[in-house]
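Appendix B. Raw example, untouched.
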Amino acid sequence: MLRTPTLSFVDRFWQVAAILIAALVLLPLSAIVWISLTPAADVWTHLLQTVLPGALWTTLLLLLGVGLITGITGVGTAWLVTMCNFPGRKVLDWALLVPLAVPTYIVAFSYVEVLEYTGPVQGLIREIFGFTTSRDYWFPEIRSLGGAIFVMGVVLYPYVYLTTRASFLIQSASTLDVSRTLGASPYRLFFRIALPLARPAIAIGISLALMECLNDIGAVTFFGVRTLTFSVYDTWLNRSSLGGAAQLALAMLLMVFLLLWLERFGRRKQRFDSGGSKSHPPTRFDLRGGRSLLALGLCLLPILLGFVVPGLLLADRASRRLDDFWSGGFLETAWNSFSLAAVAALLTVVISVALAYALRLNNKGPLRTAVRLASIGYAIPGTVLAIGILVPLAQFDNFLDGRMEAWFGINTGLLLLGSGTGLVYAYVVRFLAVSYGQVEGGFGRITPHLDMAARTLGRDSRQTLGQIHLPILKPVLLSAVLLSFVDCMKELPATILLRPFNFETLATTVFEAASREAFEEAALPSLAIVLVGLIPVIYLARSSATSFRTRLSKRQTGGVI
């Protein structure tokens, strides 16, 4: 009778490490639940009667509007660049991703300056038509729920575009060609064949966009939209009610889990075969004349609104403050952002490697559950994470300070929170899923035969990881560090709430300057964030194209790459 081999000490170490990491990720969520159940008795009643209904309704309207805009824009542009030939298609194929480089709060304050009464657009209208006051004409109010929906929609649609475009590319061209031979028009082909096949990808893209929307605090603050995120921030800082903020945060968590459930529910019975081994690129429709110009315009519009307009405004305002680049304040702020993001990105990748490798060694139920739980941080809004991290770290700091004072007469103060450790903790928890997805995919492309060969040569799991896997994974690890670094640089909600006193980052500098209507002061740090954010966009464009070529080659050759 064959017996299952017992795990070595090193193998068990990886399992224990994965479980501890999952526990650290779940600690903020546990803290939120505990805090929300222990405030004054009348806090929840007050919130339920005054704050929660309006904030919940506003949040739902915001999510609905952003979901519609991102869905229509992302799916429509993905179909055009994938299935149609028109001038500029190859450039637009990657250019449609560039709005991802601009955080929503930067686009928000850019459009506030452009479209407000004192901005250039309304100024031009008054000059052309001779209007003297705002009562002489009607102009949509940018500081409104509609303005927030517009801005977030034109910034977040690339999430839907990226996932849907990938789905259209890998769909079996044979299926689409058969539909054409049966007389299906382009519209019928899209609505009856391609769109149903792409529904899982569309659901994933919209879910990602809505989670980013729910996490936002900068844009909704500039527009005066009181969402659940804003209410958590306002209740905590302006009303000094941590318990009330925790209860609102718990309501946000329930909404996040509802989004995740709806996304999985929409895909519960969808299993699509995307084609056999001899699949080939889809045959595109050739657009001529007005149709080609219309397709070009439809694809250019979201790029103009989501990147070009705010980018030109930032470049113009930053050019007026170039002297600030060499000032000590800007360089110190940039260094703060860079150092925090670099430390968090490296930790995130190290933890991702530990999780992925532990699961590779022992892919069993409890461990798989622990790893899955450790990857849910991306769905948790930054304000929620901040509350869940603040309380346990503050209690630890106070406990350590008391013991050190009693034993050695040393006052340590807020050792973790005051040093930025809490902020790094929040970054790691929030963006672990981004890094883990990259690392897990890299491990998946390494054949298990290499592990078996290493074991037969006397290598344990630690030596196998260091001598075989990590050298192979270098490109994947580099991309994971890059994506995590840029996400940490742009993160605003957790940074505002967990940063040490008198500690500024590029994101908080933009937020505070824009809150004071000092748009020129915010332009240079905003432009720096955008330029850094372009790096992963270029990477995404290149990697998605390479991934499709690799899949196509595998199908055509029938081999394994």
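End of appendix B.
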